[in-house]
């Protein structure tokens, strides 16, 4: 939904629903999205953040009638797609995901072709009134990055996609943007790393983009900023103990577009105790990675999964705090033995309310299927409604919960 006054389009990620194939995503789109719209935006168009796997892209690209059917459904139900989550290439529900979520990474033709397909679909199904964005992976899983050549290979594929986006806009008049999402344990993890990559690797590659897109270098410089930016997932950066307002200011100062400001809250054990460790075990049996950062005596230690951090505490108990990449409902602050990083969501949207940072706002709590039963407040549609009401309240300043 358009919040008006330049405050952006707000919705929730349909990554929370079944959607590994187009049949599954189409069913979720027709089952859940209308129910959420009826609750939060009954009289106004409702924005849709669409999850498209590589399988779904293959189906839609190969079947013009299915694309037409999708667009007709959106129009008939007062819905519009403003962003696509193209981070998970393959299956994301029902089985172990873990590190596989980053594959294929940005060194590969498969990742580039998939992303170009998403762009072509968006140019056709999204309304002219929005510049749709594509959420994508943080280049590569950090342990796989073997050196400078690996990063160069990622950058070349990104430039191929940007050249495609430049050509797409030239042909259709539709501007589609690519939004790279930093994430714990990936090549792009911190805001500082992201700023360094954009300013020292991507932006200096304007001559290569000029060659690929057949445009002057002077135009390529602007095209990079026009078409490539970031998803700022507040939960990811809070897990790394970043000062969220400071991180957002760094991106703005570097001229890096925030194409999506993503509301996500993570687990925060402000003081690790035996009681907190026992309660946290409810979050360790999951199909997703739960990257965890420990802060102890002013030092930080990173763990790939929460259970690794809990094991480290058991071996060497001591005063410390943990933040974990496990998305929990953004309207929750107190989880009993520990808290959430909801405070970071509040800080970011306070900044956005004063000076809008992004045209696309989104809630991404995709973990409904693996949440402990005590955190499932009503059915999934009600849970999404509560999150949307909460974030809309933050943006509009009325504190609605």
UniProtKB/TrEMBL annotation:
InterPro entries: Xyl_isomerase-like_sf (IPR036237)
UniProt name for this protein: Metabolite traffic protein EboE
Organism name: Cryptosporangium phraense
SUPFAM superfamilies linked: Xylose isomerase-like (SSF51658)
Gene3D superfamilies: Divalent-metal-dependent TIM barrel enzymes
NCBIfam families attached to this UniProt entry: TIM_EboE
């Amino acid at each position: 939904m358009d919040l008006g006054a330049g405050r952006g389009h707000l919705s929730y990620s349909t990554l929370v629903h079944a959607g590994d194939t187009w049949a599954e995503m189409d069913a979720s789109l027709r089952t859940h999205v209308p129910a959420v719209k009826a609750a939060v935006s009954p009289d106004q168009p409702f924005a849709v953040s669409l999850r498209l796997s590589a399988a779904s892209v293959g189906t839609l690209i190969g079947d013009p009638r299915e694309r037409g059917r999708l667009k007709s459904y959106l129009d008939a139900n007062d819905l519009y797609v403003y962003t696509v989550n193209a981070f998970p290439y393959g299956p994301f529900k029902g089985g172990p995901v873990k590190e596989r979520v980053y594959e294929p990474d940005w060194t590969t033709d498969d990742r580039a072709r998939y992303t170009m397909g998403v762009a072509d679909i968006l140019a056709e199904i999204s309304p002219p009134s929005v510049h749709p964005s594509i959420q994508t992976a943080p280049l590569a899983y950090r342990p796989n990055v073997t050196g400078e050549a690996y990063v160069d290979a990622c950058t070349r594929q990104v430039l191929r996609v940007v050249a495609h986006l430049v050509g797409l806009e030239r042909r259709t008049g539709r501007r589609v943007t690519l939004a790279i999402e930093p994430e714990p344990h990936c090549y792009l993890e911190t805001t500082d790393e992201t700023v360094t990559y954009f300013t020292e690797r991507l932006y200096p590659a304007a001559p290569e983009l000029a060659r690929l897109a057949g445009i002057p270098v002077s135009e390529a410089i602007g095209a990079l900023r026009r078409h490539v930016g970031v998803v700022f997932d507040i939960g990811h950066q809070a897990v790394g103990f970043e000062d969220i307002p400071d991180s957002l200011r760094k991106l703005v100062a570097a001229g890096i577009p925030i194409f999506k400001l993503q509301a996500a809250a993570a687990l925060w054990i402000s003081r690790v105790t035996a009681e907190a460790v026992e309660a946290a075990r409810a979050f360790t049996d999951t199909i997703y990675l739960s990257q965890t950062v420990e802060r102890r005596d002013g030092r930080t230690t990173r763990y790939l999964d929460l259970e690794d951090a809990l094991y480290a505490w058991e071996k060497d108990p001591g005063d410390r705090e943990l933040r974990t990449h496990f998305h929990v409902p953004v309207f929750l602050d107190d989880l009993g033995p520990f808290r959430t990083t909801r405070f970071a969501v509040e800080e970011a949207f306070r900044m956005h309310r004063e000076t809008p940072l992004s045209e696309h706002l989104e809630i991404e709590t995709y973990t409904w299927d693996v949440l402990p039963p005590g955190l499932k407040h009503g059915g999934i549609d009600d849970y999404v409604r509560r999150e949307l009401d909460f974030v809309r309240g933050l943006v509009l300043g009325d504190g609605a919960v």
